[in-house]
Amino acid sequence: MRVLFVCLGNICRSPTAEGVFRRQLEARGLGQRVDVDSCGIASWHEGKAPDLRSQEAAARRGIDLSSLRARQLRGDDFHAFDYLLAMDHDNLRAMREQAPEGFDAHMGLFLEFAGHSDVAVPDPYYGGEDGFEEVLDLVERAADGLLEDIVARLESRP
């Protein structure tokens, strides 16, 4: 099972989601059964570490994002991942435009897994510290729901 989190630049929201979800998988003993990655629609920050404010907010919750590096969404991602989860509507629209014909993995907003079918994870980049904490709160709730969805899928496999 493979999960890809997608935001605009891959330095705030999607690496935060990747770090939070990795921690949850490890806590449930599923770290070896589910691969997790993140990327951005744009290439502006390719190769760079997550925004320092994202790293600091995550570290306060025991999550280390320092080894992650930004990358751009690639065509082969659509075939490599079972879940492609966008942080907002613009990201989702861009993903849908790039999706190849015959694509059949789950693609949608990440916060659907928190029970919010039409809500986006706000981009904290131009805001204050509170924005990074809000992102973590939202991501943790959605990660709980995603984990339950994945556990159910793994248990239903032969």
UniProtKB/TrEMBL annotation:
SMART domains: LMWPc (SM00226). Keywords: Hydrolase, Protein phosphatase. Gene3D superfamilies: 3.40.50.2300. The active site is at C7 (nucleophile), R13 (nucleophile), D123 (proton donor). Its EC number is 3.1.3.48. Residues 1-149 form the Phosphotyrosine protein phosphatase I domain. GO terms for molecular function: protein tyrosine phosphatase activity. The keyword 4Fe-4S does not apply. It comes from the Bacteria. Pfam families: LMWPc (PF01451). Belongs to the low molecular weight phosphotyrosine protein phosphatase family. This is protein-tyrosine-phosphatase.
